[in-house]
Write a structure and sequence with these properties.
Blueprint (H helix, E strand, L loop, with lengths): L1 H14 L13 E2 L9 E2 L4 E4 L2 E5 L3 E2 L9 E8 L15 H7 L9 H7 L12 H19 L43 H11 L9 H4 L1 H14 L8 H6 L4 H9 L9 H18 L10
Parallel strand pairs: 1-6
Antiparallel strand pairs: 2-5, 3-4, 4-6
Helix pairs in contact: 3-7, 4-10, 5-7
Length: 293
């Protein structure tokens, strides 16, 4: 009925030579920075949670928006820091990514990551919204640990570089004895891993492993390749661990096995778990169970 009345008013205005302004439907507001349970909010401060903006009525800490009367619901929001899917479809917004990695190397760009997502479309897009965010947080927590907060592009111990050439492989090491050192967000290393990752991604990384340290999207793709397809020393891929409710601890096992798990290095395990808990807070989800391996 409203549409018909508006149309008639516009037609009448045109007939008598008047301009008419037809109100447009309001769009959702941009999301404020994502709510963080460890942050202190005072009256008037805003935060977003699960696609809605909230404004604190008075001082609050660790009182989840939507479940405590200290928060005033400001309505739905989109984009910004609130964790709504971006145009790429990723559950982590660029603002949240920057919050997770305030000191990152510019090589590890958000655009490089989102460009790499098409290689593994099931990543962070399987299961409920909670599971999707938990998987994204788990992946980013592990790569943060592996790279010192997305700072290191290549392995820092250069003395190890010549060790990663397994010449028993039929294809050998065409890029050179010391060319297959750790690179990228999960520190891809060994000639056979470069060969396998390159074959899966349609990139000749065996001949040109340096692409992993030159091209951000390629680096991210190698991390996603491991996450989505490799069991490592574990019994399942990290992706399957997260989407099948095996928990964050199982992703650690798939990456480093007994080097860290089963008492191998509890300090390293705790470091990964702490980072995962921080990242799930930024995304506004619970970390789930089975955090340790």
């Amino acid at each position: 009925m409203l549409r018909r009345v508006t149309t008639l008013l516009a037609a009448f205005a045109m007939a008598i030579g008047l301009a008419v302004f037809i109100p447009s439907t309001a769009s959702a507001a941009a999301c404020a920075a994502a709510w963080n349970s460890s942050s202190v909010y005072t009256g008037g401060m805003s935060a977003s949670y699960n696609g809605r903006n909230y404004q604190a009525k008075w001082w609050t800490q660790n009182e989840r928006p939507g479940s405590a009367d200290v928060w005033a619901d400001q309505g739905t929001c989109t984009g910004g820091g609130g964790g709504n899917p971006q145009p790429s479809g990723f559950v982590v917004s660029e603002a949240q990514f920057n919050q997770m990695f305030p000191g990152r190397n510019s090589f590890y760009s958000y655009s490089g990551l989102t460009a790499a997502l098409s290689a593994y479309p099931a990543f962070a897009k399987t299961g409920s919204d909670t599971v999707k965010k938990q998987e994204a947080a788990a992946f980013l927590a592990n790569v943060s640990h592996e790279t010192g907060g997305l700072v290191h592009i290549v392995e820092q111990n250069t003395a190890n570089y010549p060790h990663y050439c397994d010449r028993s492989q039929p294809y050998g090491c065409p890029a050179g004895q010391a060319a297959y050192y750790g690179r990228g967000p999960i520190q891809l290393s060994w000639n056979f891993n470069y060969k396998a990752a390159g074959d899966a991604l349609g990139i000749n990384l065996l001949a040109d492993p340096w692409r992993v340290e030159r091209e951000s999207a390629v680096a991210w793709k190698t991390g996603l390749w491991y996450w989505n397809t490799q069991n490592g020393p574990g019994t399942m891929t990290p992706h399957n661990a997260m989407v099948n409710s095996r928990g964050f601890g199982e992703t650690i096992r798939s990456i480093n096995g007994s080097l860290e798990c089963n008492g191998g290095n509890p300090g390293q395990v705790q470091s990964r778990v702490t980072k995962y808990q921080q990242f799930t807070q930024i995304l506004g989800v619970t970390p789930g169970g089975n955090l340790y391996c």
